[in-house]
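Same chain as my last thread, 387 residues:
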Amino acid sequence: MGKRKFKKTVAGTAVARKKTEVNSKENATKKTAAKYKIDQLLDKAQDCIDRFEYEVAQKFCQRALELEPDNVRVLETTGTLLLELGNPESARQCFGRAVEVSPDTGYSKYMYLGQLFEGAQAVQCFQKGIELMVAEKEAKEALEVAAACASGDGRTISERDISSAYCSIAEIYMTDSCFEENAEELCKTAVEKAIEADGENPEAYQLMASLQLSQQQTQLAKENINKSVSLWLPKYRCSQNAEEPSEQIDPLQMCPLTFETRMAASKILIEVEEFETASEILEGLLDENDEETEVWYLLGWLNYLQGEEYRGNARYYLRKAAQVYKKTKCEDKPLLKHTEELLVELGPGEEEENEDDGDCVDNSVEDNMEDEENWETDSEDEERMDH
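reply #2:
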């Protein structure tokens, strides 16, 4: 006897369809819940990173990775955390995986990789990041959308973002890839594109000035560094001079340049003999951090360069540089050596020449510095020299 064949009834088909619909809804609900949980974990992780609570942030990132190891946002947030923890190799792996998962959307991972790689690899990363930034920006402008990026980077791309990326490429050709063929030409092209993208970016003009100095085009360098400084120093100066509490603004919010970039600006200004502006910038840096040896040294150096009238100022700042060098256990030996040489050349001040003990500065600077515990009470520290 043959096996009995059953026909699917209309009711049976309807039940099956209903079960499929229920399962689809359940799966969608689960995915939504998982997505919501991932976003919650990453929001908490980012909040902890912002508060420098890296160990707690690490736990949230680890849990998110367990749930969705190939989620681009998870990978990027984890990579950012690893950078903060001083683990660039693992961070590079995270950003590299994010590129594999989503190579043509989201520029942030390429910006990070550009900082983690060197030479040609770094340039390629920055160029890809710029390509994605431009594409995303144009797409937003076409749709008149000012919300989050289509890639999920979470903010609107600006001309400054694109300009800064070109600046990063230019810096590579000034450092890691400076010996490559056409390095100067490629550097100049990158800086010109940075200025074209954002004509108000002070970093771009500063890089142009640095390039022109290396080419011994001093006058052009002077024009560009002055242009750069004019784009940020006036506002920064106003924030420092605010008298009323209601007018006080965080100086860092008024200046788009980092501490290191401003110090580099002062070096260029010294090179083109814009001593007054260089001095103002360096004094501002001291207000932020008076334990940076190089800032004291640069103030001493620029005063030394201005001749006999400024010898007292030069001596003061150079002594301070040596004191801070010792106090902070700085390891820049060439800087200390030059400081010592300048102090020997400057000789003792009038007050030292009249001292009965006959101590002179032409001995080792470190041997003649005041004890570390007394340097903050030195009468000279109460007020900086006029210059």
